[in-house]
Amino acid sequence: MNPDEIPDYARLLQRLHSNPTISVVDAAQLLGIGKSTIYAAAKAGEVPAVRVGHRVRIPSRWVLGVLQLRTHAEDAPPQGGSPKDEQRLDQAQATDADPGGQAPP
Questions:
Q1: Domains along the chain with CATH numbers
Q2: Is the pTM of this model over 0.90?
């Protein structure tokens, strides 16, 4: 990669934190791999992906987890809530942690 092709990581991270999904190109740049690798991994079920028409999007929370980054919501201290809310949060985190993107039974 020549210096003119170096991605603007600040802009990539901003998109990662502000959108529920990111493009395959952005995910590939953030992970340091080729976009064809992301497409192949998504097709094999190794990377969770959302297909909308001909477009493939990668869940931002999954990329954040792989990069071991935290979302702004995760940085905030808990604000109370019911045990039911905590159960839903635990289930959502378990789903995000599953590389296949499948919810637990």
A1: 3-71+82-97 (1.10.10)
A2: no
